[in-house]
């Protein structure tokens, strides 16, 4: 099946899902599942192809990097689509949701395989508009407005850059335009920042990060995994195009270099480091599970941007691999949150506890996801962060490396909070009848967790393909020797490391099973200061979880408040203009008639 036919199939499927949902909600949801699975299967068949199809702005080309991004994106869509089956009854407009869900999927496929800049912009807008109308189907219209505002800023930046390039080179062809730009360093710098700004807004990089907690936290539970795990990676794709395909290494060959990288790239490194720190500190403070994961996306987007901006074989490989690892881990976390919300009606950590007894499989899925996100072996997140650290050490970027290290340590703090408060601790009385998720919800969660672990144990399988991506854009591919990853400061054999971890776990399990156990004490079998405790909830510590740590930065300046204050001023200005220009009061109407007539007489007098 050609790319054009695949995109048309997805769009037609969206229309079919819309009308079918009007008749039967679950049948419409099944169409989204089937179309998503077909898309994944067809995309996988493109793995080793290099085909050009279509014409004009709808010309597509299968490239290694386009295929990689499309596969990551589609995996998140497939996983979330199974959840749609159970959430249709809870959505306000289920038919519209299914249509927009598949429309945004079609847009992402077109974006990643488009071979010209105008096509990239058109499909970018399709995704933005599709997702913008899905977000308010959750809990907040404000979240959709903020998302659209930030996305519009990026879209205008991209469009201005694209049209300027067309006016100069008279073509939208990506390769031809970027090759020409590379010969003009001054123009390349301007275009670099115009195009990359669109990527930064979608990637959620500081200071454009404010839409993530609002959109991800308030979007329908079934769409949050797609937003964070998938659509955010559109920004990484644009960043990859501007850094690697431009390529900045050639265009900025004569530019000022800081620690071996062009200053343009170093600015991205600084923004990535700030995003890691800001995302980590803000995630630690959250009480809502979904907002916490959203801020973790800000932090991990910083790692992705750093890997891409380093633009060497090791750093780029780490950044690209982290795109996959973060997509799978954060999708699993959001899906686990969706299960909790489906069964309990809330994602507030202070209102939950003891879910491990009711949802053991969901607990294991969440546990595997946070191990990867925290960068702990034997999960894939460890390998990608190790590669990024290796590249930072190679370049001697001490402060960027310190921010990255802080993010890794801090990530364990914030991902542990839901584990402790939602799944561990005491079970609340109102949740005594809660059950595990339905099987169709468990299947995608288990599959995503299995992928994360597989590529953590055998990372060279993915890194070999990433080496192919690097080679396709003129970079030296990352060195792989069997199961060994070759780096400047040492080699890594993640497979053997995983064997050691597994062996250690088995030994610890045997010791635990053999040694005598302590007596199991009931929740009410306790007292303090000679007074009996009659309410077990008092012992579930979930509110102000990291209060001593949070006090260190509780009075920090907030970018969100600053930007929202600007928004308020703009709204006030708009209200004033509306009253002056669009009021229907007689006095205002007479005023404008007098002004218009006066202008006509003045112009007539000059003539």
Automatic annotation (TrEMBL):
The chain crosses the membrane at residues 27-46, 67-87, 99-124, 145-166, 186-214, 226-246, 266-285, 292-311, 323-342, 363-384, 396-416, 437-457, 494-515, 586-604. GO terms for biological process: ATP synthesis coupled electron transport. Its main location: membrane. It comes from the Bacteria. Signal peptide: none annotated. Residues 114-409 form the NADH:quinone oxidoreductase/Mrp antiporter transmembrane domain. GO terms for molecular function: NADH dehydrogenase (ubiquinone) activity; oxidoreductase activity. The keyword Transmembrane applies. InterPro entries: ComplexI-like_HydComp, NADH_UbQ_OxRdtase, ND/Mrp_TM. One of its GO terms (cellular component) is plasma membrane. Keywords: Cell membrane, Membrane, Oxidoreductase, Transmembrane, Transmembrane helix. PANTHER family: FORMATE HYDROGENLYASE SUBUNIT 3-RELATED, HYDROGENASE-4 COMPONENT F. This is Oxidoreductase.
């Amino acid at each position: 099946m050609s790319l054009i036919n695949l995109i048309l199939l997805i769009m037609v499927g969206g229309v079919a899902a819309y009308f079918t949902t009007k008749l039967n909600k679950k049948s419409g949801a099944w169409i989204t599942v089937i179309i998503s699975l077909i898309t994944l299967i067809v995309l996988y068949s493109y793995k080793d192809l290099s085909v050009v199809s279509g014409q004009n702005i709808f010309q597509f080309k299968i490239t290694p990097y386009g295929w990689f991004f499309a596969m990551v994106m589609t995996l998140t869509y497939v996983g979330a689509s199974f959840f749609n089956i159970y959430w249709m009854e809870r959505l306000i407009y289920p038919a519209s949701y299914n249509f927009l869900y598949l429309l945004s999927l079609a847009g992402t496929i077109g974006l990643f395989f488009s071979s010209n800049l105008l096509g990239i912009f058109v499909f970018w807008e399709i995704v933005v508009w599709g997702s913008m109308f899905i977000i308010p189907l959750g809990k907040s219209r404000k979240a959709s407005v903020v998302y659209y505002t930030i996305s519009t800023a990026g879209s205008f930046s991209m469009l201005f850059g694209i049209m300027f390039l067309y006016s100069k080179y008279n073509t939208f062809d990506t390769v031809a335009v970027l090759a020409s730009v590379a010969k003009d360093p001054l123009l390349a710098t301007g275009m670099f920042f115009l195009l990359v700004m669109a990527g930064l807004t979608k990637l959620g990089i500081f200071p454009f990060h404010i839409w993530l907690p609002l959109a991800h936290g308030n979007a329908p539970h079934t769409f949050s995994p797609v937003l964070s795990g998938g659509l955010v990676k559109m920004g990484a794709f644009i960043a990859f195009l501007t850094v690697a395909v431009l390529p900045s290494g050639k265009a900025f060959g004569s530019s000022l270099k800081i620690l071996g990288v062009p200053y343009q790239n170093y600015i991205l490194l600084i923004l990535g480091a700030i995003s890691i720190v800001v995302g980590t500190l803000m995630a630690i403070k959250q009480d809502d599970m979904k907002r916490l994961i959203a801020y973790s996306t800000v932090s991990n987007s910083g790692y992705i941007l750093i890997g891409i901006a380093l633009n060497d074989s090791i750093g780029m490989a780490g950044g690209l691999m982290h795109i996959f690892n973060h997509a799978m881990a954060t999708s699993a976390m959001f899906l686990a949150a969706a299960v909790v919300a489906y069964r309990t009606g809330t994602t507030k950590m202070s209102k939950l506890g003891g879910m491990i007894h009711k949802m053991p499989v969901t607990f294991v899925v969440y546990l595997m996801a946070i191990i990867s996100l925290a960068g702990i072996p034997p999960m894939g997140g460890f390998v990608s962060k190790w590669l990024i650290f290796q590249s930072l050490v190679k370049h001697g970027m001490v402060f960027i490396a310190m921010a990255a290290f802080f993010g890794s340590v801090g990530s364990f703090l914030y991902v542990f909070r839901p584990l402790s408060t939602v799944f561990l601790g005491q079970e609340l009385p109102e949740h005594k009848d809660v059950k595990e998720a339905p099987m169709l919800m468990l299947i995608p969660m288990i599959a995503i967790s299995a992928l994360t672990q597989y590529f953590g144990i055998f990372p060279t399988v993915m890194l070999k393909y990433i080496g192919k991506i690097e080679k396709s854009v003129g970079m030296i591919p990352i060195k792989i020797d069997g199961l060994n990853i070759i780096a400047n400061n040492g080699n890594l054999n993640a497979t053997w490391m995983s064997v050691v971890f597994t062996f250690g776990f088995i030994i610890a399990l045997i010791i635990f099973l053999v040694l005598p156990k302590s007596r199991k004490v009931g929740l009410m079998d306790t007292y303090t200061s000679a007074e009996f405790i009659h309410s077990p909830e008092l012992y579930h510590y979930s509110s102000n979880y990291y209060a001593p740590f949070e006090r260190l930065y509780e009075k920090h300046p907030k970018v969100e408040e600053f930007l929202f204050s600007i928004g308020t001023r703009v709204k006030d200005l708009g209200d004033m203009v509306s009253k002056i220009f669009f009021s229907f009061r007689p006095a205002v109407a007479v005023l404008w008639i007098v002004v218009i007539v006066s202008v006509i007489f003045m112009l007539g007098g000059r003539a």
